[in-house]
Amino acid sequence: MATTALLVLDLVGTFAFALNGALTALRTTRLDIVGVITLGMITALGGGTIRDVFLDALPPATFLDWRYLAVAAAGGLIAFLTGHHLDRINGTITVLDAAGLSLFAVTGALKAVDLGFGPAQAVIVGAITGVGGGTLRDVLIRQVPSVLSSGLYAVPALVGATVVVVADLLDARGPVAAVAAAAVCFAIRMLGVRFGVDAPFPPGGRRREPG
Amino acid sequence: MATTALLVLDLVGTFAFALNGALTALRTTRLDIVGVITLGMITALGGGTIRDVFLDALPPATFLDWRYLAVAAAGGLIAFLTGHHLDRINGTITVLDAAGLSLFAVTGALKAVDLGFGPAQAVIVGAITGVGGGTLRDVLIRQVPSVLSSGLYAVPALVGATVVVVADLLDARGPVAAVAAAAVCFAIRMLGVRFGVDAPFPPGGRRREPG
Amino acid sequence: MATTALLVLDLVGTFAFALNGALTALRTTRLDIVGVITLGMITALGGGTIRDVFLDALPPATFLDWRYLAVAAAGGLIAFLTGHHLDRINGTITVLDAAGLSLFAVTGALKAVDLGFGPAQAVIVGAITGVGGGTLRDVLIRQVPSVLSSGLYAVPALVGATVVVVADLLDARGPVAAVAAAAVCFAIRMLGVRFGVDAPFPPGGRRREPG
């Protein structure tokens, strides 16, 4: 795939997660502008940073390339300035999170392929990239991360990454395949949210012993 | 030590931590199958991933080698399917955690030795490997990590790593020394749990000022 | 700047953060000596470890160089033994945190410059180094990190790092510039604490929807 197309998708994902993280900060806790933008940037840049640790591609691209930093900071600032106008902030947060998840699952997997990793590793790194930033966000604001509590969160990331890796194996790589894979991930995630779908729960009822 | 023996011990530790993390997820929070297996895999693979960051051995072996991924996923799945049959889930969780702690303290220290690090660094990396996965687990489910709250948690890991590093310095390296060192760590940890042993508390009484 | 001067400032910052982390452990939760020293060491060594991941300078200096380990352990032990004598433990914690923040912002930025990174990257790494250890500390004891909740926490770190990087660009590098930059950071941070200064809050009032 053209490097430019991959970069564009990655930056769109960064922007979506920066808006998402900053809006989450506005909704959840009483944070000032620095806290809001910081949480936006950590959400936006965290997944790619963890990805580059796993791929031994340090220093992380999220930190070396000013475009990621600029897009993440801009997303945080825009959310800070406009978030109070949003009537349905929770819905917006969910859509942005699904968008970031989808784009990062795909771009993370493609970066692994480009660096010569095998298909299984590429799928796993894609999923880690997708869920990484949101997991850092949730830990910092003391919520149980979505990747644990929401059945259809890791699964769509794995599916999206798998679609794009299989397309690559079939020589069908390109912007179209990448966008299609991200759309598949996004659709599964949003359907899961819309219909409250969870993966199966443990057999034998919910166990809740005192710790 | 034969590489095979080290690999076997490392995989057994991975399996113990995967069971432990998944059972903790079953006990603590209402997670579906994906959340349970995810927490099992993070617990199982987290310590080795942090170890490889400290040893500059990226990409992490836990991620490159499919055996770690397979064992971790299998452990999480088995715990998900069978956890509700366990009468004494808390006791099982404690034993599995001590087993993972012990094996990873030893294999982590040996990996550092193999890569040419000095004895002090090997002991520290061993302890970090042992406590790392459980610490990630506790942060994700919002508990104070055992390494902070339980006096005899870091100490047995340090002792086990020290035993195996000293054995290596004395040319007594081998599977026997490794298993013996892990057994020492396991015994100290379980005795601490059994008798509620803690390390000394601060002099002057427990201080609890409002933050 | 002379390498020795940089090392001294880095070790002073390590010591300040070790005292701070251990005193925080004494104040916040019921931890024994191992827990107190562990939290002190994580606070003291965490920022430099994250810095070295971002700078691709692994294995981390905090782990390879015994002086960092010794200073961090000593700081934790001293705080454990003497913390109960402190009348104003909260004030002491705040001052030590500001000192560590200031010194690490400066030394982190200088390390990035020495490794050939550009000015923007050096400033960012300096800020990350300054806030990193305290953020790990707060996550482990389940508090919202200062970098999110306190307006003037990231800002003074960015200012201190900028001052020392600009001085370097102007060929005015040296111990004097480093100490002056740290003093600027420290002064801004302490003024912010003293007068309860925050950065601007979101327009339109504080939003607090149920999650």
From TrEMBL, chains A, B, C:
Segments traversing the membrane: 6-26, 33-54, 66-83, 95-113, 119-140, 152-170, 176-197
Organism, scientific name: Blastococcus goldschmidtiae
Protein topology in the membrane: Multi-pass membrane protein
Cellular localization per UniProt: Cell membrane
Keywords carried by this UniProt record: Cell membrane, Membrane, Transmembrane, Transmembrane helix
Claim: Heme is one of the keywords in the record: no
Protein name as annotated: Trimeric intracellular cation channel family protein
Limits of the Glycine transporter domain: 8-82, 95-167
Family membership: Belongs to the UPF0126 family.
UniProt keyword RNA-binding present: no
UniProt cross-references to InterPro entries, sorted A to Z: Gly_transporter
